[in-house]
Protein 1
Amino acid sequence: MTQIPPSPAVDWPRVARLLLTSRAIDTIEEQELTPQGKVTYQFSAKGHELAQILLGLSLTHPRDGATVYYRSRPFMLAAGLTPPETLAADMAKTGSPSEGRDVGVVFSMTSRGAVTVLPASGDVGAQYTPAAGWAQGIFYRARTLKDENWSGALATAIGGDGSTAANGFWAALNIVTTLHLPLLFFIEDNSYAISVPSLMQTPGMNIAANLSAYQGLHVLDGDGADPLEASQKIAAAVSYVRAGEGPCLLRLRVPRLMGHTFIDDQAYKPAAKRAEEMQRDPLPRLKQFLPDLDWEKLEEEVKAEVREAVTAASRNRDPEPESAPRHLFFEGQPQTQGGLAPEGFTPPRSTLHTPQPTGPRLNFLDAVRKTLDYELTRNPKMLVFGEDVGLKGGVHGATLDLQHKFGCERVFDTSLSEEGIMGSAVGMALTGLLPVPEIQFRKYADPATEQINDCGTLRWRTANKFAAPMVVRIPVGFGKKTGDPWHSVTGEAIYAHTLGWRIAFPSNAEDAVGLLRTALRSNDPTFFFEHRALLDTAPARRPYPGDEYALPFGVAATVQSGDSLTVVTWGEMVYRAQEAARAWPGRVEILDLRTISPWDREAVLASVKKTGKCLVVHEDTLTGGFAGEIIATIAAEAFQFLDAPMGRVAAPDCPVPYNAQLMGAVVPNVETIAGRMAGLLAF
Ligand SMILES: Cc1ncc(C[n+]2csc(CCOP(=O)(O)OP(=O)(O)O)c2C)c(N)n1
C-alpha cells in the first residue's frame, strides 16, 4: 500500500499526544478511579478521539465558539483544558470548570487565546441553538458593530447521532440556514444513543444523506477514524464556514469502543458489531499513518503525565459546602464571559428612583416601547427580536417602528421556534450582547423550557465564569375582552421556581418603565411580564417617568394604606383588589409586589405585623401558586402577629376558558375578592 503523506497543516505529533492522553485518562478512570469510587460518572471517548482533536486544533480564532457534549473530552484537551483540570472535574474537585458543581464531563471553558467552549448542558440536543446564537453574535459584532476582532470567527456545535433527533438540532438548522450563519454542525455518528441504534434517529441511519438537499447547508460525510480522510473533511468544513460561505454539517462515523457510560455493559450490541468497531479504532490507524513516530516513548511519557495529573487533581480541595448556593445571581464580581459587564460596559447611571412625570399619560404598551427605544439608542449591543417583532412591530405592538428606526440587524423577526429564540439568545448573550427576546404569549414559552432552565443555572454551573444576562418580555394573562387556555396564562409560579431568573410583573406604565430599565441594565436573566388586559387600558396609564427612571427590583408599592387587612397582589389583580376594597375605606392595605423574584418580604411582613391579617390575590392557579410562598413566609416569621387565618384568592386549578361566563368563573373577580375581604375583616 502506498503511504499517503500526512497533511502538513496538521501538527500530527500533537494529535498523537492528545489522543494518547485522552485514552490514558479514560483507561485510568475505568480501571482505577471509577472502581475506587473517586469518579462517579465515567463517559469514555474511546473511538471518538481523533476527529475531536483535529477539530479542536483547528479552532484557533480567539472568537471561535463551540458547544460540546459529555463525550467531548478529546476536543477539550485539544482546546486547552489540562489533564489535571479534567480529572479534577471528574473527581468533583475545585480547580475544574464548574468547581465541583456539575458532572465532570459537562464542560465549559473561557477562551485561552482560541476557542471559547460555551457552558455545556446535560440535556441532549440543547447544545445547538446556543451555538447558532454565538454564530449570530459573530455576524452582529463583525458586520454591524464593525469589530474586526470578530471577523473570520465561527461557531461549532458538537453532538452525537442521537442528538440530531432532538428539537434543538432542527431549530438551529433552520436559524443558521435561513440567516446564512457561520455554524458547523459536527456530528459524531457512533450509531448508538445509549442502546438505541441510529435507525431510530433518522431514516436510513445517515443524517448527512438525509440533509443533502437542505437549502443553504453544505453537507460533508466521512470516516472520523481515518486520519487522512478525517483531517481533510474537517479542514474543508472549517474553511468553508470560516470563509463565510454559510453553515455546514459534517457527519463523521466513529466507533464507540466502550459502553455509553462505565456501567453500560453493551449487552444490546451484537458481538460482530463490537468486533467491527474494534477494527475501526482510530489509534492503531493513526500509528499506521505515522510510522516514524516513536510511539512507545510517547506512550510512556503520556502515561507518566496522566499519572501525575491524577495526583495533582486528587490534591485539589473539595469545594466548601457553604459555597453551594453562591453565583446563582450576580454577586458583584463580574463573570469572565457573557453579557455586557466583562467588556467594561457600564450602563448609563440610573440613580433616579423617583419618577419625574412629564407629558400626557401613556399606555403600558407605549411605555414599554419608549423604554426599549431609549435603551436601544444608548446601548448598541442590545438586540430586540421574536416572532413578528420586526416589520409588524409585534402582535401586541410593543416594538412598532423600532425596526424602522434601528434597522433589521437590531430589531428582527425570528423563525417560529421558542427553543430557537431562547437558545440563540443564550448564545448571543455569551458573545457579550444584550438579547431582548419577545415570547408572543406566556403559554408559548413552553417549547423554550429547556433553554430557560439551562440559562438560569449557567452562572452557577460555571462558578461565575460565564453568565447570559437577557430580558425576556412576555405578554401574560387574560385579554381586555376575552380569555382562553392558550393566550391567558400568567404562570409566574413556575418561573419563580425556575432557578436564576428575576421576574418583573408591573401593573402600570410607570412601573413598567422603571422595571424594564433596571432589567435592561442588570447582569442577570430577567422575565418581564406585560399583562394583556393592561396594555392599552385606562387604569394602567401613567405619565412617562423620565429617561433615567429606574425602579429597583424587590420593592413593593403600597397602593393604598389600611389598618385591618393586608392584601398582597400584582399585575391586573391590583385593580380588582382596589375595587373590592372600596367598601372599607382606610381598612384594607394593598401591596403591589411589582416583582416576584425577588419579592419584597420586608414590606409584606411589616404590613401584616401592623394589620394582623393577610389575603393574597393572584390570577395564576391555586395549587403551588406564589401565594403559598408568601403565606409560608408570614407563617414562619410573623405568626404571633396574626389575628385570622391567612387567605388566598386564585384561579381554581383549571385553564382559562374561552366563553366569557366560564372565564368569569375562573379568573378571580371583584365579588370573590370582596367576599374574602369581608370574611377576614369580620374574623
Ligand atoms: C433531553 C435528554 N434526553 C435524554 C437524555 C439521556 N441521555 C443521555 S445520553 C443519551 C444518548 C445520546 O446519544 P448520542 O447523541 O448519539 O451521543 P453518544 O452518547 O452516542 O455519543 C441519552 C438518551 C438526556 N441527557 N437529555
Protein 2
Amino acid sequence: MPGTLPVATIRTQVLVPLRFLDGFTTTARVFTFAGLVDDREHVALGLGDFAGPLPAIGPPASVPLVRPHSECLTGDVFGSQRCDCGPQMREAVERIADVGGFLLYLRQEGRGIGLYAKLDAYALQDAGLDTYEANLALGHAEDERDYTVAAQMLHALGQRRVALLSNNPDKAAQLTRLGLTVIETVPTHVHLSPSNASYLATKAKRGAHTLDVPLVSEPSA
Ligand SMILES: [Zn+2]
C-alpha cells in the first residue's frame, strides 16, 4: 500500500570509513532518518557510488543493490557461529560497495523478537527444538520481521527501483507490497560452519529461503 506508507526523511548523513577484521576497507555514507514508523534507530549505509553526496546519487539509470540486514548482536559483533549473520553482512558490504547501493541495518534482532528472547530461543534449541519451533514456543511468530521501515528508508533516499541482495522471498514480497519495484533478486552465498549447519538447513526448509547457491566454507580460525 504505497499510498499509505508514512513518509520518512533523512535526518543526518555522515561519512564513516569502515575496516573489517579481515582487513577489507571501504567508506560508507551513513544515513539516519526521522519519521520511521517504529521509532527505532535504523540506519542506511550508502556504499560504492551511493556513498557520494545525496543529490548526486541515484540517477535514473542507476539501480542500487540493496540488502536489508536484520541486526544480530551475537553474529554481527561477536562472531557467533550459531548463525551466518556476520559473514552475510561482511559479504553484503563488499558486494554492494562493488556495484553501488545500500545496506539497510534494521534493528530487529532475532527475527524481530529481541535479543533476550533470541537467547531464550537458543536455550530451547539446545533442548531439541529448531529455530522456528523455539520462537513459537516462546509465544512469538516464526518470523516477526516487518520491512515497512526499509521501504520508508528507500523512499527517503529517493530509490523506487532496487536490486535486492537476499535469499529471503519474504523481503522482496513485502517491499513490492510497500511500493518498491524489485527488478532483480541477487542471492547471497551460504556461509556454512559446523555449528550453523542445522540452522541453515532449517532456514531453507521452513523459511523457503533460496539456498541452492555456492557454498562458502568458513575458515575455522
Ligand atoms: Zn545471527
